[in-house]
Specification:
single chain; disordered N terminus; globular
Length: 440
């Protein structure tokens, strides 16, 4: 485990070097963390405060959902994978001009979907699909080159996320809202597979590294079961789309949605069971760790809420219909789950890969709390009340402040070389020469 997820951590700090394009494009997390976090700030501000600026055909809720999942959450995940795969395999999948080209494709997609018009939409769609294809090819190349067998499925998962993106965009173009949300759920579940796979590996590792004497079981069998049931849920969701099985509340239970719901419920229960085995009481005084535990917990809870909705076994009047709204499981998994997990991973992995001390300063800790506050306020706003709109605005402000603080604190570090590695590309080549045998 320690070899698989070795993240170099240096406490020695020297005078900061000048910004460097070579450093900025040395590893995938540097430009993609900045791009993803920056876009998350901009897109939420647009969605909440100036939605009239969003242009057709990807408008309002369709644009917001797409940009949060594919434009932010999945972008951060790919930035992490492009970085972690260098450690797992000993080979850097992308740096320099190829990484810059991937980032340009990402920027074209964001601009095209925002500007609107059919021409902009298709240009953005093509750029986004090429982004996923390029990332998958880069990951696949180093996984096979480094013989990292346990990670062979990751490029396939990235391609799956790209395919779900295309299906979603086609539904948006047709203006079919029920189908649009079903395809959004496919992307959400696909991302959950990736998030659970990554988090189940890194959270126990980080915890044991930071808490002296802490021992956490590997839980290999439950991990395999978790992956099997989450992939089964994803496969059932795909078959729902192919067969046109209705999944709207009140339509009654159907075989495929029931399989999907049962699989999600088991996946969620396994996730919460794993969390209990990770000794959460041992990390309560470690903000860099409890933020990860909390995000993982919300993913498990959100999967149970999704199972509740997809099963269609319950009366829509229960709890005023809140539990069967798509927005409930979407925000439990996407905001309270993925995004709380992301703010913790953005901080922890950036500090580790930048050779910085693994300690939170006040701005970083404030960013963690603000993201938790944003999630809680957004969930509270789901309950119909006179305060819903005010809660929504407060959630947006907390979100913007959280990620704004991250950018303010980390951008100066992300555009500079590591203090202990002034030539990042040379260092990554050196790492590739000595690590592949131990990274498998």
């Amino acid at each position: 485990m320690s070899r698989l997820l070795n993240i170099e951590e240096a406490s020695a700090r020297t005078a900061p070097a000048s910004p460097s394009m070579a450093a900025f494009l040395a590893l995938g997390f540097r430009p993609l963390y900045i791009a993803g976090a920056g876009w998350a700030v901009i897109s939420i501000a647009l969605w909440i405060f100036t939605p009239q600026l969003l242009g057709a055909p990807l408008t309002l809720v369709a644009w917001h959902a797409h940009e949060m999942l594919w434009g932010f959450i999945i972008t951060i995940a790919i930035g992490f994978l492009l970085t972690a795969s260098a450690t797992w395999t000993g080979f850097n999948p992308l740096h320099g001009r190829p990484l810059a080209a991937l980032c340009v494709l990402w920027c074209i997609a964001r601009i095209g979907f925002l500007v609107g018009g059919l021409t902009g939409f298709w240009i953005a769609t093509a750029a986004e699909l090429l982004f996923f294809l390029g990332a998958a090819i880069a990951l696949g190349r180093v996984m096979f080159k480094g013989r990292s067998r346990r990670n062979y499925g990751l490029p396939v998962l990235v391609l799956t996320l790209g395919a779900a993106d295309l299906l979603y965009l086609l539904a948006a173009l047709q203006g079919n809202y029920p189908v649009l949300m079903e395809r959004f759920d496919l992307g959400l579940i696909g991302m959950a597979v990736v998030a659970l796979l990554i988090a189940r590996r890194v959270i126990p590792f980080f915890a044991m590294r930071m808490v002296q004497g802490l021992q956490i079981p590997m839980l290999v069998r439950s991990g395999h079961a978790q992956m099997a049931f989450s992939v089964l849920a994803l496969a059932a969701g795909v078959l729902v789309q192919i067969t046109g099985t209705p999944m709207t509340p009140g339509s009654g239970p159907h075989a495929l949605p029931l399989v999907m719901a049962a699989s999600l419920a088991v996946t969620g229960l396994i996730s919460l069971g794993q969390l209990a085995c990770w000794k959460p009481q041992a990390v309560l005084r470690k903000p860099m760790l409890w933020i990860l535990y909390l995000g993982y917990a919300f993913i498990g809870i959100g999967l149970l809420a999704a199972a509740w909705q997809f099963s269609n076994l319950f009366d829509p009047a229960i709890l005023n219909g809140v539990l069967i709204r798509s927005a409930t499981h979407v925000h439990l998994i996407g905001l309270a789950g993925f995004c709380i997990l992301i703010i913790g991973m953005l901080t922890r992995t950036a500090l580790g890969h930048l050779g910085r001390p693994l300690a939170l300063d006040r701005s970083m800790l404030a960013g963690h709390w603000l993201m938790v506050l944003a999630a809680l306020l957004r969930l509270a706003a789901l309950w119909p009340s006179a305060a819903s709109l005010h809660l929504l605005h407060l959630a947006a402000l907390a979100w913007i402040l959280s990620l704004g603080l991250y950018l303010w604190r980390f951008v100066p570090m992300l555009i500079r070389p590591r203090p202990d590695k002034p030539s990042p590309i040379a260092a990554s080549k050196k790492t590739a020469a000595i690590q592949p045998a131990q990274a498998r």
